[in-house]
Sequence to fold (133 residues):
Amino acid sequence: MRYILGFFLIGGLAMTVWVMFSSPVKKEGPAVNQATPAAQPVVPAGPPPDTITFENNYGRSIFTHKQHYERVMGDCSTCHPKIFPQSREPIKYGKAMHRAAEATKTACAACHRVGGTTFAADSNCVKCHEVKR
Fold:
């Protein structure tokens, strides 16, 4: 029984690592060897939105932009563009990417990780995702 459980645990860990590192990365735009001017961040006119909603398969997430903006005392450069681009493009952040982001301290996990500056997203899904019915 112990060997069977060990097999499934090691197999699950191996599968998780494989999914994290083998997920295709879609690169859009010009080829890397072509010189292009750096894209300028989109800076919205007026105050930032209070919330931003991200639709996803795990229950939509409502990002409290106003709360985060106030926490950094209006310093947008805390997150933009080094962690997030200032654009209206959806964040492609799937389930396997949560662990990778936590390991590399990127995306939401720059702060929301074990040992980060605020609550860890690790196994705390309902802090960010609505419960699907």
